[in-house]
Specification:
mainly beta; Jelly Rolls; five-stranded antiparallel sheet; 1 helix; binds calcium ion
């Protein structure tokens, strides 16, 4: 579903996000762009769940170890190749054109520095877990500076990218973090964009 329209600007919290706190969000690990969901159990602490990455509250965070300590068995460094997939409730056809991250409360070494964002129009759990379903939209910075800590509990610069294709679900995966730590974490990770108008 390619779009050449500019669509409808979404207002919400934060302004322009197509992700909202009531969206279905699933934490994943040991997963890379183009690949299927890696072997995992619950790969994050019960008090630091994926929901906290999109709840609009900078004081809550999503933390993922991405290793066997929480049931995710893979070879990646801690926190790498973890993230989530999400189905926005605001519309089943949205166009993602940016990301907006906020740092968590502690451990700058756990900040995500590089990510991939993919989209799909598949809807079943089986398809959402299949690498074949996903189309790469973005691979690049989170907006969190690598050498310089932007401070804790801070929204960083929104990252914008070119995309005109509408999707119903998105998958975000961390490919690099700041330093050596046992996990990756972030207070907020919003996908920015607009509702597709056919
Ligand atoms: Ca939060």
């Amino acid at each position: 579903m390619a779009s050449t329209t500019t669509g409808t600007t979404i207002t919400g919290s934060p302004t322009g996000a197509i992700t909202r706190a009531d969206d279905l969000i699933i934490g994943i690990c040991n997963t890379t762009a183009g690949g299927s969901t890696g072997r995992s159990g619950q790969n994050y602490p019960g008090a630091e769940i994926p929901y906290y990455a999109i709840d609009g509250n900078i004081n809550t965070k999503y933390l993922n170890f991405g290793d066997g300590s929480y049931g995710c068995y893979g070879s990646a460094p801690p926190g790498i190749n973890t993230g989530f997939y999400i189905t926005p409730t605001i519309s089943n056809a949205t166009v993602a054109i940016g990301l907006l991250f906020a740092t968590a409360n502690d451990f700058p070494s756990r900040d995500p520095i590089m990510v991939t964002l993919e989209g799909t129009n598949e809807t079943t759990t089986e398809a959402l877990n299949s690498g074949a379903s996903w189309t790469l939209i973005y691979s690049g910075s989170t907006g969190i500076d690598s050498p310089i800590d932007p401070d804790r509990l801070t929204y960083v610069s929104r990252q914008n990218f070119s995309n005109t294709v509408a999707f119903s679900s998105y998958r975000l995966l961390v490919t690099a973090k700041r330093g050596s730590s046992d996990s990756v974490q972030y207070a907020e990770a919003h996908i920015m964009g607009y509702i597709y108008n056919s």
